[in-house]
Amino acid sequence: MRTKTDHRFIIDIGPEQVMEALLAVERIPDWSPWHRDVRLATCDEYGRPKRVYATVSPVGHSDRQVLEYDCTADRIAWRVVESGAGSGGQGWFEIEQSTEGTEVWYHSEISTPIPIPGILYKRGIARANEEAVQNLIEFIEKFQYGENYSAE
C-alpha cells in the first residue's frame, strides 16, 4: 500500500527558527504521532542530520527504520533506506520566507507491505498527517531558537 501527502502552512516565525526546529530530529516524537523513538546516528559537515534511526508505527505496527537525510539551507529531505517490516518512504520539508511569514511545505510518501483496505489506510494516514502538522506548528512555536540538538 502506498500513499502521498502534501501540506502547506505559514507560520509567523523566522525561517532560521523553523529550520532549527525541523533539524531537531531527536525531538520528532514530541510532535509526530507515528514516531516512538528517534536517534541521530551521523551528521553532515554542517552538523545537520545525515543518518537517523527511528522506531515508527505508521499503521499500528511498530517498525525500526534507518533514514538517510539530505539537508540544504531551505530543504530537509529524507528516505527510508532500511526497514525491519519492509516499509518504505520518503519526504521533505521546504521553507521559504514570504510576506505572510515563513511558508513550510511538507511532503510525505509512505509504503507498507501490509495489505490494508485502501480507504481505511488513506483515511488513517490523512488523519495522522493532519495531527502531525498541527503538532508540528505548536512545536515550532514553542521551540527555543539556539537550543538546537547536538550530535553527541
Q: Secondary-structure element order, as H and E? A: EHEEEEEEH
- The appropriate CATH architecture is 2-Layer Sandwich
* Average pLDDT metric: 89
> What helical percentage do the residues reach?
10-25%
Quick rundown:
By secondary structure, the protein is α+β, with helices and mostly antiparallel strands. The chain is 22% helix and 44% strand. A hairpin with a 3-residue loop joins strand 4 and strand 5.
Question: What does this protein structure show overall?
Answer:
By secondary structure, this protein is an alpha+beta fold. The chain has one domain (2-142): START domain (Alpha-D-Glucose-1,6-Bisphosphate, Chain A, domain 4, 2-Layer Sandwich). The protein is 22% helix and 44% strand. It has 2 helices and 7 strands, in the order E-H-E-E-E-E-E-E-H. It has helices spanning 15-23, 118-142; strands at 2-11, 35-43, 49-56, 63-71, 75-83, 88-98, 101-111. Strands 1-7-6-5-4-3-2 form a 7-stranded antiparallel sheet, with helices on one face. The longest helix has 25 residues, at 118-142. The termini are far apart. Mean pLDDT is 89; it is low at 148-152.
Quick tags:
Alpha-D-Glucose-1,6-Bisphosphate, Chain A, domain 4; 152 residues; single chain; alpha+beta
Topology:
Blueprint: E1 2-11, H1 15-23, E2 35-43, E3 49-56, E4 63-71, E5 75-83, E6 88-98, E7 101-111, H2 118-142
Antiparallel strand pairs: 1-7, 2-3, 3-4, 4-5, 5-6, 6-7
